[in-house]
Amino acid sequence: MTEATILHADLDSFYASVEQLLNPELRGRAMAVGGGVVLACSYEAKAFGVRGGMSGRKAKELCPHLIFVHGHFDQYQRLGDAAIDVMRDYTPVIERISIDEAFADVAGCTHLFGSPETIAVTIRKRVRDELGLPISVGVARTKHLAKVASQVAKPDGLVVVRPGTELEFLHDLPVGLMWGVGPVTEQKLRDEGITTIGQLANTPGKSLRGLLGEAVGEKLADLAWDRDTRSVETRHSARSAGAQSALGRKPATESTYKPTLRHLADRVTSRLRAKSLVGRTITVRIRFADMRSITRSSTLDAPISATVIVAEVAEELVRTALAEYPREKTITLLAISVSHIGAQPQIQLELPLGLVDEKHRPGTRQGLARWSADRAMDKARTRFGRESIGYAITQLEGRKSVPDAFRELAEKNL
DNA sequence: TCTGGGGTCCTAGGACCC
DNA sequence: TCTGGGGTCCTAGGACCC
């Protein structure tokens, strides 16, 4: 029997906990970070049904005395890093999945620090004592089970799933706790009378695949029987990079989308260049007033990272897509994503290669000028800050729906 | 006064090739 | 002449995660 050496650690209601740490008056109170939209909320607020992603108005309806605070985003980054660093004191085998969550495999270090359970207890105590934050930990033989265990442990708890007791632990739990079961899948399963993981496990694989599709059906059957073979991966390379902007309601015209797409292209490509990455596929997403959205994409012959090229391709995709929907007069969101990402070939550090058409071609004056302009701007921003310089057209008017600091938190994973 | 922003993976159909 | 099967890539949409 393999030992249970995988830990999943998850800071509880992270942003809200940090705010309560910084301001004692918020402790024990129903509070949320955000305003227009709830970015995070305290357990006291959750008791009223308030949830992350909910509109501020809806949250206030559910919980009239809810207190809204602006986020201390720099503190989230610092404290999230510090919590992960506590885990790193016990093992280098760490897979961070977000600002407040990570897997660790302690198989190689139990001779130094004691059993996985002992290590989990120590990590929880240290994060509480040194950082002042509650953190829940699950310990199990597989990643999926460790993750489920940490969810069961919340708030501020520890759950160890001992080898041999996995199915006993898993099968009474609701299917919604499984990784990969969201609202849609949960409803489909409920329609079949399946509400627990045990019921799911005892459903024939064939009917599961028929109901949920080949891959999802297969995956859930495996997870329900605790057949999770994934290991803790310390390295991660991005497959795509994107940026989006909610617009409120704006007319579906070029004067709306052109400046927005410039701005988004600038955000995405400067992040790519900062990591010496290039991408081949450019995808745009347009959301209409009724929340339906469409995507259009274009795959280039060669990978790129120049702002103007991404912007021009995106504009053409949006122009063409909107022409297909002449009755849509209003758009509410625009997004750009660059995928097919890879490392920038070394030679591109000297010359821009593989641009889309004649005028962008390496060695031509325009291609070179555009690439040089991007490089110069990236350098200036590194020295003087992001806001110091930009293509004039990318500087958008109007209030921001979400602080830039919040976007930057979400960006870390490239 | 409808619902933020950043990602991953899967599906299904069509084009194209062998 | 008609037919078959497999593989890869691209596109558009959708579910899910933090």
Automatic annotation (TrEMBL):
Renumbered residue ranges of the record's region Disordered: 234-256
Cofactor: Mg(2+)
Residue ranges of domain UmuC in the record: 6-182
UniProt main location, coarse: cytoplasm
Keywords: Cytoplasm, DNA damage, DNA repair, DNA replication, DNA-binding, DNA-directed DNA polymerase, Magnesium, Metal-binding, Mutator protein, Nucleotidyltransferase, Transferase
CDD domains, alphabetized: PolY_Pol_IV_kappa
Site (Substrate discrimination): residue numbering on this chain: Y15
Class in the EC hierarchy, top level: transferase
Annotated localization: Cytoplasm
Residues noted as binding Mg(2+) in the record, renumbered to the chain: D10, D100
Keyword Ion transport: no
InterPro entries associated with the record: DNA/RNA_pol_sf, DNA_pol_Y-fam_lit_finger_sf, DNA_pol_Y-fam_little_finger, DNA_polymerase-Y, DNApol_IV, PolY_HhH_motif, Rev_trsase/Diguanyl_cyclase, UmuC
Annotated protein name in UniProt: DNA polymerase IV
Origin species: Devosia sediminis
Lineage of source species: Bacteria, Pseudomonadati, Pseudomonadota, Alphaproteobacteria, Hyphomicrobiales
Chain's gene name: dinB
